[in-house]
């Protein structure tokens, strides 16, 4: 997983006198391993870019005025709103085992695992809503045919994951690693899926690089304005198609990955979640949490990511009770 970026992170941590993890494998060019949680400290890693993806903030296009969902469209299990009634708990994954446990031939087994873990997250009266987060737009360390360093999962793959999510009453979130493309450009390609009532988005700005940069060699980045353009677009889909609330997650591993978060405004029908990413021990992850929560806009919900293998290599995997002890309490908990 994500070897080149992880090597960059190791260098940054060594310079700061911190310990970091390493790793690699045959899938590194597709999805290198997540960097250490300790990298979320304010200092940027060597060579990291703070340049947002080249398209920058865009004006959200107007979707087709013809509704594709009925007025009675609801979330899995019923209802049209997510917070504060629900907590989201899920797995990340894709066609490569390097993406996580949500593999094509293991979706039903993964759903059973999610249900078992979710039972430990509902003690505060919330109903857990399971999540499948499918890595759908995949950043690469080599150029695609159009030179934008990303490829797209075909529709039949997305359809298979959505069918499995529906079998298990789960939301499907389409994860976007845009490479040299812009987020809005990639998201609008997914409109036929986003007009479904149980499909949302997860944005990975760590993989949004500039026109002369390569994913995995540097940290990519985005801006609050670019995230806002995507949220505005989702809001328009909700209004036009009579949809329940849409989830828009943005994952963040380092302070430099999202600039000027204050430009990300609230939008009707969109639940925006900032998910704190990064590998590390419990202490590392809690420090990262504290650092990145400082800049979270008040209307953005908190999310937290754990790594079954990589985190456990640094110490015991945080328990659900320990995750729920974070302040603020996470509304989304994702395992990879």
Descriptive notes:
The chain is α/β, with parallel strands linked by helices and 336 residues long. It has one domain (48-54, 78-335): TIM Barrel, CATH 3.20.20. 25% of the residues lie in helices and 19% in strands. It has 8 helices and 11 strands. The protein has helices spanning 3-15, 107-118, 155-167, 183-189, 191-194, 224-241, 282-293, 320-324; strands at 86-93, 127-139, 150-152, 171-176, 199-203, 222-223, 246-252, 258-259, 270-276, 301-306, 332-335. The strands form 2 sheets. An 8-stranded parallel barrel has the order 1-2-4-5-7-9-10-11, surrounded by 5 helices. A two-stranded parallel ribbon has the order 6-8. Helix 4 packs parallel to helix 6 (224-241). The longest helix has 18 residues, at 224-241.
What is shown here, in short?
The chain has 336 residues and is of the alpha/beta class. 25% of the residues lie in helices and 19% in strands.
The CATH architecture assignment turns out to be: Alpha-Beta Barrel
Unreliable parts:
1-59, 64-71
- Largest sheet, strands/sense/barrel: 8 strands, parallel, barrel
**Percent helix:** 25-40%
Roughly how many Å apart are the termini?
A: 12 Å
Strand content: 15-25%
Assigned CATH class: Alpha Beta
* Radius of gyration of CA atoms, rounded to a whole number: 18 Å
Shape call = globular
Under CATH, the topology is which? TIM Barrel
Structural class: alpha/beta
Give the number of domains.
1
Succession of helices and strands: HEHEEHEHHEEHEEEHEHE
Protein name: Lipoprotein
Signal peptide: 1-19
Region (Disordered): 19-79
Organism: Jiangella rhizosphaerae
């Amino acid at each position: 997983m994500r070897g080149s970026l992880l090597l960059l992170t190791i260098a940054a941590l060594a310079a700061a006198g911190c310990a970091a993890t390493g790793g690699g494998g045959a899938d590194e060019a597709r999805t290198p391993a997540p960097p250490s949680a300790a990298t979320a400290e304010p200092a940027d890693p060597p060579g990291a870019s703070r340049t947002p993806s080249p398209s920058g903030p865009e004006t959200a296009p107007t979707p087709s005025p013809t509704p594709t969902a009925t007025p009675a469209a609801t979330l899995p299990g019923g209802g049209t709103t997510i917070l504060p009634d629900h907590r989201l708990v899920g797995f990340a994954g894709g066609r490569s085992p390097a993406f996580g446990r949500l593999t094509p031939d293991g979706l039903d087994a993964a759903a059973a695992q999610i249900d078992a873990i979710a039972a430990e997250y509902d003690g505060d009266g919330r109903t857990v809503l399971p999540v499948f987060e499918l890595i759908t737009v995949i950043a690469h360390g080599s150029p695609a045919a159009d030179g934008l360093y990303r490829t797209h999962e075909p529709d039949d793959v997305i359809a298979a994951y959505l069918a499995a999510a529906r079998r298990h009453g789960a939301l499907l979130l389409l994860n976007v690693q845009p490479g040299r493309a812009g987020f809005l450009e990639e998201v609008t390609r997914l409109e036929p899926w986003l007009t479904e009532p149980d499909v949302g988005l997860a944005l990975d700005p760590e993989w949004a690089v500039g026109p002369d940069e390569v994913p995995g060699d540097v940290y990519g980045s985005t801006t609050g304005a670019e995230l806002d353009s995507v949220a505005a677009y989702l809001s328009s889909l909700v209004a036009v198609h009579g949809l329940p609330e849409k989830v828009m997650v943005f994952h963040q591993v380092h302070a430099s990955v999202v600039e000027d978060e204050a430009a990300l405004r609230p939008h009707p029908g969109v639940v925006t979640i900032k998910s704190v990413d990064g590998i590390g021990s419990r202490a590392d992850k809690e420090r990262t949490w504290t650092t990145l929560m400082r800049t979270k806009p008040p209307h953005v919900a908190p999310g937290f990511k754990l790594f079954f293998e990589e985190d456990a290599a640094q110490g015991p995997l945080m328990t659900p009770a320990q995750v729920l002890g974070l302040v603020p309490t996470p509304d989304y908990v994702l395992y990879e």
